[in-house]
Known about the structure:
By secondary structure, the chain is of the alpha/beta class. The protein contains ten helices and twelve strands. The chain is about 40% helix and about 15% strand. The longest helix is centred in the middle third of the chain and has 15 residues, at about 150-160. It is globular, with a radius of gyration of 18 Å. Keywords: Metal-binding, Transferase, Zinc.
Amino acid sequence: MSKVIISCAVTGAVHTPTMSPHLPFTPDDIAAQAIEAAEAGAAILHLHARDPQTGKPTADPDVFMQFLPRIKQGTDAIVNITTGGGQGMSMDERLAAPLLASPELCSLNMGSMNFGMYPMLQRYPDFKYDWEAAHLEASRDWVFKNTFKDIEEILTRLGQGHGTKFEFECYDTAHLYTLAHFLDRKLVTPPLFVQSIFGILGGAGADTENLLHAKRIADKLFGDDYRWSVMAAGRHQIPFITMGALNGANVRVGLEDSLYAGKGRLARSNAEQVSLIRSILEPLSLDIATPAEARGILALKGGDNTNF
């Protein structure tokens, strides 16, 4: 096995400030937690932006630019910027920051899907900010849109236009076949970085059978031309990605995916989750990849070739 790449999704666009006082949403906190996560062992930092006053997800490139340069100055970790953005964002809004920053890596959801966050409403009687409850409730009738045309646009504008590579986010095995379609059309080039995602309402469930099936399909479609990674939402995060690592996967943690670092215990930072998974994997004789090693494994263009 090659070394395990740890990705850390620092803030995301799902959880809201009421859910955890440790969820970073100001540029200062996002930068500080990202750098700490890298120091703990994360080779890749997956980044969204939020309104500094309310914590609401935003696509504003000016907000991204308040923390991207600071992260680059503070660590050599790979910066991975979302192209999914958040609920209600147009394609132009979702691409504004990546096109400006020209990062080494961007996330790319491989299809349209229902994305249900509304069950979390039941857990919180009150919310700190007015937007939070409405944001969760709106997901009851929300379809995240990434059509074949949308994916082609992202691959063309960012991939071909900027030399950016992608973390292909696959929420079901159908998304693997969509990725194979774009590989056949030569709009993507190996090695592919395939992120299998489990436990999101609307995607594949966090079941062992789904994990192994996803690997079987990816092996069939991509052979040696891909690098696999696994993430799981909520309470499934640590046990599921541990199973993934034991089956040859890289792993993703972060407060975007889970707010916890143990049963009933809120993670105090993204770095705590990175340290936790590292403390599990290293005694299993799984070595952790440095940012430089991850760049080599994924054939990235290098941090000097970005615009931040």
